[in-house]
Amino acid sequence: MKNIHLILGLVWSIIASNFNAQSQVITTNLVAKMDVIPTFSLWDGNKTLLMGYTKFIGSKIDLPSPILEYYEGDSVNLNMRNFSQSAPHTIHLHGLDVNQENDGVPHLSFEIPHDSTGTYSFVAPHPGTYLYHCHVVSPLHVQAGMYGLLIVRPADKSKTTWSGGYAYDKEYAWLASEIDTFWHQYQRIHDLSAGTTPILDYKPQYFLLNGKSENQLESESITSSINKTVFLRLANIGNYGNTFVFPSATKTRIISSDGRPLPSIDFSDTLTILPGERYEVLLSSEVLLNDSISVSYFNLNTQIVENIQSIPITITQVNSISTIESTGMKIIPNPASSAFRITFNASMPDDSEITVYNSSGQKVYARIISDQTSLNINTLSWGRGLYFITLNSGGQFTHQKVMLK
Ligand SMILES: [Cu+2]
Q1: Pair 213, 264 in one domain
Q2: 53 Cα: distance to centroid of ligand 1 (angstroms)
Q3: Three-class SS string for 202-228?
Q4: Distance 82 CA to ligand 1 centre (A)
Q5: CA 185 / ligand 1 centre spacing (Å)
Q6: pTM of the model
């Protein structure tokens, strides 16, 4: 009898330990909403109406909808409250191997009518980049804005792409889409009958990455430092194809496609992503860089590129980007033409050093300074472009950029 208790106790402790390792239950609440007045700002100052998911009932609808983030093995209860006044909505978990009941495809799963709440339950699968979107009249509801990224990270919470995968230093996620404002008009967003009209004539005027374009894309910039690894998640939820072009210096490695690791690393400067697809890439540069990653939006019927957006990428010499913002020195004027002056916040201690690099990482200027509060630098022979200035003051590094025009 004693032995049976011992065995039962042992079995229970094994069950309990497995249970503890995998049973993190996560509850996420989303509200499905539709705008009554246009509040989403486009790059040119125009505003448009959206349908979308928000975290709170009072939140403004943003594009894309919030990123849902989980760790592998999490038991997720995703609650969705429909507060959109008219149309029913669902959440389709695109790329996740969830059962049909929780898949958010109407008629196979369930729809959530206005002022009702439904729950999608699933276990977070293999670490990767996934999408979620509404599956009710999906061409219209997705175009209206009902989409977002779902990210699964390794259970051990390490900064690796998946268990036993690639280590990285920084992570970014970019979701591409388009807006045709015709499909965002009030009567189309709010009229239920519009839901039965397919999108026949789709002519987007706005080509987006994380809901932004043109000058708004500054906020999506990638900043990293030499020999550090950037993990970039890419996804396309638009109706156009996307071709990303990376600077060759970033030695872009394509490591996964649609949530599955690729059997071998593909080094490539270009990557085409079709609607619904996701890719994951690693970027790492051995040289300083001030460049951009471009994304072309091409019409799937004509294959014609209708728009190109570019997102800045800056690779600096330092490990910590925060020091870039350091105000230990000022550059006047900036942009400069034939000369500029550096002024220091305090008199520099002896043996401080100013070094200037061009955007290819070559040193173009170096000078030891001592007990100085400013320094004039002649740039007549340097050529146009961006230069990186490093101040080494007793082992403390400060960085600034100067543009020569
Ligand atoms: Cu919907």
Answers
A1: yes
A2: 9
A3: CCCCEEEECCECHHHHHHHCEEEECCC
A4: 9
A5: 16
A6: 0.74
